[in-house]
TrEMBL record:
InterPro entries cross-referenced by the UniProt entry: 6-hairpin_glycosidase_sf (IPR008928), 6hp_glycosidase-like_sf (IPR012341), GH125 (IPR008313)
GO BP terms, alphabetized: carbohydrate metabolic process
Protein name, entry field: Glycoside hydrolase family 125 protein
Source organism superkingdom: Eukaryota
Gene Ontology molecular function: any one: catalytic activity
Length: 492
């Protein structure tokens, strides 16, 4: 598979290295990479030369460069089509998260800034056309054919989709919020207003579509006369079992925002996913702040976003928490407003453990602390797998015995205990099975039993976390204990 590499012991004594296998390695030769960045190479050189753990350094190098090395399938001066890595389609959520790790470099790498702007521009078009869809085919300008085989073959979807443009139309609130997040952070690092003017202001049209979806999905299932209200439904052979003719489980009038799929691409148990609500509060306020800082653009959108964020924040604290006997007050993973609650977590972000990473509340908040203890315990979370190979949050997307390394990355990025962080890094480093990239999931008792050799979001997230440690806990990575500093590295 293109993009994979083996990390083998070299003769010098067990250090991991890149295998020089041309365009099929994790770090292809420059002429084989799908995009080259001088700023990225500077970061790689500085980090890997300073990190004490050579194996962890090589893992970081492979993960950090993975998106640019292998997943940029087409770009021009305005648009960028980026795939997940091992699937030939662009997921809104994945591609946004694949690029977050590169945002601090934009001021020192204009081509990388242009490439990132292209991701936002293309996503704005996709969202405008199909706001309930989550993954897409190449744009016509690319000349690339629509890929086979879309997960929606044989599906019944309303609103209708077009499989020459759409790969799958699973409505995920976090996918739309990820677009808002990438836009906000892009402007923060670049101060580039062209995303607002491209395609006659298509970015604003996309944002309006997002706000419309949010308004629709905050509408309860039953109106005042008992009629069922539905704005989206999906059913088919590859969509799992969606209750009620594809409409999903009923939702009460709570002020929360419904979703149909989790970040794992599983259908929800209950329609209000609590981590999604936390992310919505942050990103709707972030949207208002972005527009204000860019010149007080669209006060109407600012006002609507702030009002919705306030409503969701109040509602999630009312409807999204549960008082438990063993753990005190905690966040549920999903609720419906009728008393139904899924008491678990999922390793994909947004998750309950990721709440501080999302920016919703500080890691010291008592409710978060209770929640973290619950979902990272063998007695509090039915999807917490443990064994000699790895321990952490698993997912019904695979099964209860396969832990997802991505969940351990979230434990690290939100962690405060140095010893625990180092333990999690060892699990991550030792479960790549020689491929040098992060798997989707790993059997807790058999390291050779894993799913997906790699996918780019997980690798970018891992690299983002290592860079955060390099800035906030440098003593865990570097012998000199000096913090990594983007400005000094990029100007060298």
């Amino acid at each position: 598979m293109p993009g994979l590499c083996g990390l083998l012991d070299d003769a010098a004594g067990g250090r991991l290295r890149r295998v020089p296998s041309g365009c099929r390695s994790c770090a292809p030769a420059p002429e084989c990479r799908t995009f080259n960045s001088t700023a990225v190479e500077k970061v790689v050189a500085n980090m890997t030369s300073r990190m004490v753990d050579a194996d962890l350094a090589r893992f970081f190098e492979n993960a950090y460069t993975n998106t640019l090395d292998t997943t940029i399938k087409w770009f021009n001066e305005n648009l960028t089509f980026v795939v997940t890595g091992d699937i030939p389609a662009e997921w809104l959520r994945d591609s946004c998260n694949q690029f977050k790790v590169y945002l601090p470099l934009l001021g020192q790498d204009q081509p990388l800034q242009d490439l990132t702007r292209g991701v936002i521009n293309l996503q704005a078009r996709y969202i405008t056309e199909f706001p309930y869809c989550n993954a897409f085919q190449p744009p016509p300008e690319s000349g690339l054919p629509a890929e086979c085989c879309s997960g929606d073959f044989g599906a019944s979807v309303s609103p209708p989709e077009n499989l020459t443009i759409v790969w799958t139309c699973g409505y995920e609130l976090d996918s739309l919020l990820s677009f808002l997040q990438l836009s906000r952070l892009y402007f923060q690092y670049s101060n580039d207003k062209s995303i607002f003017t491209f395609n006659n202001g298509g970015w604003f049209t996309a944002v309006e579509a997002i706000l419309q979806v949010i308004a629709e999905q905050a509408t309860p299932t039953y109106d005042a006369d008992g009629n069922v209200i539905s704005f989206y439904n999906i059913s088919g052979p590859n969509q799992q079992y969606m209750k009620n003719d594809g409409r999903g489980p009923p939702k009460a009038n709570t002020g929360l925002i419904g979703t149909t799929y989790r970040p794992s691409d599983d259908v929800v148990y209950f329609p209000y996913n609590v981590p999604h609500q936390a992310m919505a509060v942050v990103e709707l306020r972030g949207l208002a702040a972005l527009l204000k800082s860019a010149g007080n653009l669209r006060p109407d959108i600012q006002s609507e976003a702030l009002a919705r964020a306030s409503t969701v924040e109040t509602s999630v604290m009312k409807w999204g928490t549960v008082l438990t006997k063993d753990w005190g007050e905690v966040f549920a993973y999903e609720v419906d407003g009728y008393g139904g609650a899924a008491m678990q977590d999922d390793p994909n972000v947004p998750s309950l453990v990721s709440i501080p990473y999302l920016g919703f509340m500080n890691a010291t908040n008592p409710i978060y602390q209770n929640t973290r203890k619950m979902v990272l315990s063998t007695t509090g979370n039915p999807y917490y797998g443990f064994g000699p190979v790895i321990r952490g949050v698993s997912s019904p997307h695979i099964d209860e015995k396969h832990v997802w390394p991505m969940g351990l990355v979230t434990e690290v990025v939100t962690g405060t205990d140095d010893a625990d962080i180092l333990v999690k890094l060892e699990y991550l480093k030792n479960t790549t099975t020689g491929l040098g990239l992060m798997h989707e999931s790993v059997n807790t008792h058999n390291v050779e039993d894993y799913t997906r050799p790699w996918f780019a979001w997980a690798n970018s997230y891992f690299a983002e976390t290592i860079l955060q440690l390099a800035q906030t806990k440098p003593h865990l990575l570097f012998a000199d204990g000096k913090a990594f500093d983007y400005a000094s590295v990029l100007q060298s």
